[in-house]
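#struct-pred
JK: can someone run the complex with KG4? inputs below
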Amino acid sequence: MKKNVIIGIETSCDETSVALYVNNKFISEITTSSMQIQSNFGGVVPEIATRYHQNNIHKIFKELIDKNNIKINEITHVVYTACPGLPGCLHVGTCFALTLAELTNSKIVPINHLYGHIFSGFIDKDIEIEFPMIGVVVSGGHTTIYYVKSVDEIEILNETQDDAVGEVLDKVGRSLDWKYPAGPLIDKLFDPNKAVIKLVKNNFSPQSPFSFSGIKTAALNYINNHKQKNAQFDEIELTSSVQKIVIDDVVNKVKYWLKQKQCDRVCLGGGVSANKYLRYELSKIKLKQLVLPNLKYTGDQATMIAYYGMLLINSKNL
Ligand code: KG4
Ligand code: ZN
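RT: done, structure tokens with the ligand placed:
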């Protein structure tokens, strides 16, 4: 294998992150986030996130290479998140990556950051990647099931038509005046015995596209109706009911596609992949392989970008 010094860059949302792989080995990652500032606003404000990237990307990149004694001209590849994400945020990362690649005469590798999430479960683990797999990405902006035939043959089987799972949890939490992002707290307080509120009439069907705007609106109406009447309600009953409905839907659709594709491997990624109930429900499916990311790789970070870039670089001899 050729010698390589790979820089990963991730700026799709509120994390500004850079990572370094040398000769296909993880060396270091530095991540800083505007989450603390964003939490005062109940969600990510694109302009704040963009300016945060702009003010920090060059500093953490310099820190990364200085700390690891890398000379800028040793860089062989610059892998960066080209899509999807907030346009201003992606723009900052793209300009930085293109300039760096140009100055160092290195190869530029633009990637879809959701593919980084798909393979994030393999980072730091000594397990072989075997295909095909059903890839499941659940985050604040995306809920997608993929058929993964190889590192770069990835087909969408189902994706949300409106809200993503994380977005539903965060919006319900916001209406309850919980801190952004509410997903982790909803997970922590989840009680299956309290998931008793019937917010939607019919269960979702496994073959239909994901659509969570109905359940989100029903939950927000439930909160508003109680507030208007000054009526008490159990917040954990509500959040547990919402979490159970959306996660059960994801799991049922994963089961459906496993059967359709006669596949017995699943890899999970994205911020919501940290969810304990989701992990537990997936672990109950009879599979050859269930690949779950270490918690530090569930959210957005540049390690998964550099890692996926490295897989591409090696498989396509870039
Ligand atoms: O992947 P990510 O960091 O950002 C993108 O959306 O791309 O995902 C963030 C999302 C938020 O909606 C957050 O509430 C959710 O992941 N999240 C969780 C948990 N940890 C983070 N949702 C449910 N359970 C968790 N433990
Ligand atoms: Zn993401």
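RT: quick notes.
The chain has a mean pLDDT of 96.
Strands lie at 5-10, 15-22, 25-33, 77-83, 107-112, 133-138, 143-150, 153-159, 265-269, 289-291.
JK: thanks, will look after standup
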